[in-house]
Amino acid sequence: MANGWSVITGLLICVAMAVAAWFFSPKGENQVLWRSSIILSIACCFLMWAITFLAQLHPLIAPRRSDLREEYVHH
Q1: Do residues 7 and 50 lie in contact, with contact meaning Cβ atoms separated by under 8 Å?
Q2: pLDDT band at residue 67 using 50, 70 and 90 as cut-offs
Q3: Taking CA 46 as the corner, what is the angle to CA 62 and CA 14, rounded to the nearest 5 degrees?
Q4: What is the pTM of this model?
Q5: What contacts 50, CB < 8 A, 6 or more positions away?
Q6: Torsion sign (Cα): 48, 54, 57, 63
Q7: Measured between alpha carbons, how far is 30 from 26 in angstroms, rounded to an integer?
Q8: What are the angstrom distances between the C-alpha of 70 and each of 61, 63, 64, 67, 73?
Q9: Segment 9-54, tens digit of pLDDT
Q10: pLDDT of amino acid 23
Q11: Out of the domains of life, which is the source (predicted)?
C-alpha cells in the first residue's frame, strides 16, 4: 500500500541510478554534458513523481459531493 516510505524508497532508487549514471556515462569530450543531463533528468523525474504522489497521499482540500441536497450536507 502507499505510505511515506515509498518516497524514501524512490529516493534511494534514484540516487542509485544517479551514481550508476556517474560511473557509466560515455567517455569522451562530452562526458560532463552526459553526466549532467542524465542526473538532472533523474532528479526532475523524481521530484515530479514525489510531488504528485504526496499530493495524492495527503490532499490539501477534502473532496465534497456536489450531488447532495442542501438538507443532507453537513458543514
Answers
A1: yes
A2: confident
A3: 135
A4: 0.75
A5: 7, 10, 11
A6: negative
A7: 8
A8: 20, 16, 13, 9, 5
A9: 999 999 999 999 999 999 999 999 999 999 999 999 999 999 999 8
A10: 95
A11: Eukaryota
CA distance 35 to 23: 9
Angle at 54 between CA 63 and CA 11, to 5 degrees: 170
Residues 55 and 8: beta-carbon distance below 8 Å: no
Domain boundaries, the chain: 5-57
CB–CB of 17/45 below 8 Å?
Answer: no
